[in-house]
From TrEMBL:
The reaction(s) this protein catalyses: L-seryl-[protein] + ATP = O-phospho-L-seryl-[protein] + ADP + H(+); L-threonyl-[protein] + ATP = O-phospho-L-threonyl-[protein] + ADP + H(+)
Keywords annotated in UniProt: ATP-binding, Kinase, Nucleotide-binding, Serine/threonine-protein kinase, Transferase
Domain of life: Eukaryota
Organism: Hibiscus sabdariffa
EC identifiers of the protein: 2.7.11.1
Name under which the protein is recorded: non-specific serine/threonine protein kinase
Top-tier EC class: transferase
Length: 93
């Protein structure tokens, strides 16, 4: 993000605000957005896993076995453009 993670954690505590915040808004603005159709889905996949790891309830966090499986599974294309994906969508996946 290029910011302290605490800023993001405060956003995650309110699920109503997650619908209005786009994933690209929390990415590090110093890095360019991916233009490759192969990279963008991987970025969403990593963000989804990362947000899953932030769950306060340990039982709801992905196990390393699930994380490995996610990285090894076949890549799919995004159904909507990267700019349209909200934080809520990455948290609910």
């Amino acid at each position: 993000m290029g910011k302290h993670p605490e800023e993001l954690l405060s956003l995650l505590s309110s699920s109503t605000s997650l619908v209005n915040i786009k994933l690209i808004d929390v990415l590090d603005s110093r890095s360019p957005l991916p233009t490759s159709l192969l990279v963008a889905p991987n970025l969403v996949r990593v963000a989804t896993l990362a947000f899953g790891c932030l769950n306060q309830q340990a039982k709801l966090r992905p196990a390393m076995k699930e994380v490995c499986k996610e990285f090894l599974c076949r890549q799919t294309s995004l159904k909507i453009p990267l700019r349209m994906i909200s934080l809520f969508q990455t948290c609910e996946a």
